[in-house]
Design goal:
The complex is a heterodimer of chains A (about 375) and B (about 325). With about 375 residues, chain A is an alpha/beta fold. Chain A contains 14 helices and ten strands. In chain B, helix 5 runs antiparallel to helix 6, helix 5 packs parallel to helix 9 and helix 14 runs antiparallel to helix 15. The chains are: A alpha/beta (about 375), B mainly alpha (about 325).
Chain lengths: ~375, ~325
């Protein structure tokens, strides 16, 4: 990834970040009106290849452009949230400037009213519809890329080719060899279809989803978090999993033969994004916004998302080698036909119940 | 000329005099009838802080989450407790936690007692040192690292499966089930139990065992009728520590359970951090504290001895 940075000229960066940013209008007058620069800003991020990609694509170029350092806080996203909420509610300065978060989790903070409105980011003008959080007013969050909860599998375990349906996970030979997220995320919606239900019935009637998940339970699946999937594939613990393609791709990069597919029932499509908590000093909030604006430039998205293998929200970003036409890298309306997208608001309002139901099935 | 004070009294006496003078200023003799309260003040502060925390948790447990604003309700209700009472998943998780804690305690004590006994009674200094090293080395390694160690050893391509593969056996799934969690907990708790048992066994004079033998008791009878009863305070203390730590454990079920063997602590984490439902998380927390306290009370009142006898004479 670092070599890619080398190819990215400062001129491109400046143009790309549409330096409404900072440098818009250029000249000394504009610079004089810039708020005071903090020594650093803190961005919460996921570790491993996730933070490496962010650093290469956004953080390092941001520091190069502005001289402001970027510290990555690798606190788990679920664990930073209560800390930020408490800080905002108590009128303290939040512990981070920017939260890199799943859109579902970020929506909770937006509904709580503690996120800064990002509608004025100049680069949003170029952004695709997927940058906008569904079901929320304005831009309390900015989605920065999308991802698909694919069916990842070891080709040796599927000699007849890629599994065509999620129902193939019910094959007895896969008992104890399949894995899901421990809260069932990614699986609820395809299970609704595989169980004979309709997506329109979500959230009012999800009985078909739970019936299908009960069948999956008989397969004694492993349940884990993002890093577990990569590890389990590498250690030969599983043959198939419902996971974000990035995790399967990571295992593949490490020399493990892993492939992925979108079965006929479809896969859940979701997004991650950035948000800024209220309560920051005005100058720090300004520079945090500039960071997000830079992340929405073609150049930054290209480097950042090359590392993650995920489709961005700015037109002009080219798919990394090997992902052109890949089902986990949707870019055309045709690609999205097989993907399931449920508004974040519906998800957050019902997730507690969905998690509890999934857990009650899996913990039984 | 009489010698100076410096020459008459040693330094340590003068330091003690100074400290006594200071203590007299800070806590005058007139307050001496309250000295007992002063001595237990630190524990009162600690317990008081816990009580304040529990009141806060109890307050939160009576509020419900509004998923339209992700804020807790202003009004109180028993909705969270009703949810816990009517949900199969929490009953399953609570039962699993209890069963896991009891099994872990029993197995740990069975393994820890002979270990501690040999460590205390052996005449070989080398053997005692070896046993102490084996005890303390894992003690200084964190729980998460130890759990990872078991993932490496017991995994599908771990050392055990590689060894069994050499004799033609297919890989066996040792991990990600309830026995794996209990196994991990026992291994983690063993040093705690041995460390608590060792002083209790050391306090039993070896002559008592010799006397029992001289009166015709076999070694097993001596163990059963002399050593074990005399070691009861140590066994109860070790058992309580292991029981409460196991009941509230988070890491072993999370790492060795494969996501389907949650204990109550895992369910609490999910509510506080995953679904942001602090009310339900607080209700679970309160029930865990009450359940744990009840268990400890039962154990002390049934088996307690010595300083651990709950209001009874040993």
């Amino acid at each position: 990834m670092t070599h890619t940075i080398g190819r990215m000229s400062r001129r491109h960066l400046l143009a790309g970040s549409s330096a409404a940013l900072i440098m818009a209008g250029a000249g000394s007058r504009a610079k004089a009106s810039e708020p005071e620069k903090p020594a650093e800003i803190i961005v919460r991020a996921w570790g491993g290849s996730w933070v490496d990609s962010l650093k290469a694509g956004v953080s390092d170029p941001f520091t190069k452009l502005t001289g402001i350092g970027v510290r990555h806080d690798l606190t788990e996203d679920n664990e930073i949230r209560p800390k930020v909420w408490a800080a905002v509610d108590q009128g303290r300065v939040p512990p981070i400037h920017i939260n890199w978060d799943t859109t579902t989790n970020a929506t909770k903070s937006a509904l709580r009213g503690i996120t800064v409105d990002l509608s004025d980011l100049p680069n949003l003008k170029n952004a695709m519809e997927t940058a906008k959080p569904v079901g929320l007013d304005g831009f309390p969050i900015v989605n920065t890329y999308g991802y698909v909860y694919v069916l990842a599998y070891r080709p040796e375990a599927f000699p007849n080719g890629a599994p065509k349906s999620w129902k193939e996970l019910l094959d007895p030979r896969l008992k104890g060899r399949v894995a899901f997220y421990n809260d069932g995320i990614g699986m609820h919606f395809p299970a609704q279809v595989a169980g004979g239900g309709k997506l329109e019935d979500i959230p009012s009637n999800m009985a078909p989803a739970w019936e299908f998940i009960k069948q999956l339970k008989t397969q004694s699946p492993l349940l884990g978090e993002d890093p577990d999937f990569t590890t389990w594939f590498q250690k030969g613990e599983i043959d198939a999993a419902c996971t974000i393609s990035t995790n399967a791709r990571e295992a593949k990069k490490n020399g493990i033969n892993v492939a992925w597919t979108v079965p006929e029932e479809g896969c859940k499509y979701d997004t991650d994004g950035f948000w800024i908590p209220k309560g920051l000093p005005a100058n720090e909030e300004y520079w945090a916004k500039q960071y997000i604006n830079l992340a929405l430039s073609v150049e930054s998205q290209q480097i950042w998302l090359d590392g993650l293998g995920l489709p961005g929200v700015i037109p002009g970003v080219k798919p990394p080698a090997g992902l052109m036409g890949d089902p986990s890298y949707p870019t055309t309306p045709e690609d999205f036909k097989h993907l399931i997208r449920i508004p974040g608001k519906v998800q957050v309002e019902n997730e507690s119940e969905w998690f509890a139901t999934f857990k009650s099935i899996m913990q039984g | 000329m009489p010698p100076s004070i410096k020459a008459r009294y040693p330094l340590t006496w003068r330091v003690m005099d100074a400290l006594e003078w200071l203590a007299d200023r800070l806590w005058p003799r007139s307050m001496s009838r309250h000295t007992g309260w002063l001595l237990i003040a630190p524990s009162l502060i600690i317990v008081g802080s816990l009580v304040v925390g529990m009141i806060e948790i109890a307050d939160t447990s009576l509020r419900t989450l509004d998923t339209a604003t992700f804020r807790m309700s202003e009004s109180y209700s028993l909705a969270n407790y009703q949810k816990l009472a009517t949900s199969d998943v929490y009953l399953t998780v609570a039962w699993r936690s209890l069963l896991g804690a009891v099994l872990t305690t029993a197995l740990t004590l069975i393994l820890a007692f002979p270990y501690a006994y040999i460590m205390v009674r052996t005449r070989s200094a080398a053997a005692r040192k070896a046993l102490l090293i084996c005890l303390f080395l894992p003690f200084f390694i964190g729980q998460v690292v130890r759990a990872y160690g078991w993932l490496i050893i017991l995994g599908n391509d771990g050392i055990i499966n590689q060894a069994t593969g050499l004799i033609g056996l297919d890989p066996h799934r040792f991990l990600f089930n309830f026995p794996a969690v209990v196994f991990g907990l026992v291994q983690y708790m063993l040093p705690f139990a041995v460390l608590m048992l060792a002083p209790a066994l050391t306090a039993i004079p070896e002559e008592v065992e010799t006397a029992a033998k001289s009166l015709g008791a076999s070694w097993p009878r001596t163990m059963r009728h002399v050593v074990l009863p005399m070691a009861r305070p140590g066994l109860i203390g070790a058992g309580l520590v292991v029981l409460t730590l196991s009941l509230t454990d988070f890491a072993m079920p999370a790492m060795l359970g494969g996501g389907s063997q949650d204990f109550i602590a895992n369910a609490i984490y999910d509510q506080f951090f995953r679904t942001s439902d602090a009310g339900l998380g607080a209700a679970l927390t309160l029930l865990l504290v009450m359940g744990g306290t009840f268990l400890v009370g039962v154990v002390l009142s049934v088996f307690g001895a010595g300083t651990l006898a709950a209001g009874r004479r040993a």
